Amino acid sequence: MADSAAGTVPDCIFCRIVRREIPANEVKRSSDAVAFRDLNPQAPQHVLVIPTTHVAAVRDADPAVVSRTFAFAADVARDLGLDAGGYRLVTNTGPDAGQSVDHLHIHLLGGRRLGWPPG
Ligand code: 5GP
Ligand code: ZN
Known about the structure:
Layout: H1 13-18, E1 26-29, E2 33-37, E3 45-51, H2 63-79, E4 87-90, E5 106-110
Antiparallel strand pairs: 1-2, 2-3, 3-5, 4-5
This protein binds guanosine-5'-monophosphate and zinc ion.
């Protein structure tokens, strides 16, 4: 069985969710990724999808991790019944994008018509 602490850092809030030290409303988990509901949802379906290994943002990540995490997000969207209506995957990176947690995360947003361009 995979060690859920491997590759995590002590004080990162999303690593703590990976290690199940703080509660999260989990939607799906694998050895590589965890999907859980955002505390402050911006759409009827708003899930955060993170790699289980700590990396700050997409610019720092191994392409294989990015690929697996996006593919996992698409699996979650399918599980939530979003394939027909569609959905958005977005990863905020750095201050101009408003990144507030420095552990790579993909926002999965769906369940309503989403505006474009984003704010
Ligand atoms: P960012 O602004 O970095 O792109 O997204 C961070 C997201 O994490 C925000 O949408 C925020 O609501 C969510 N968030 C922050 N802390 C927690 C937490 O402890 N649990 C959960 N489920 N979501 C969190
Ligand atoms: Zn982390």
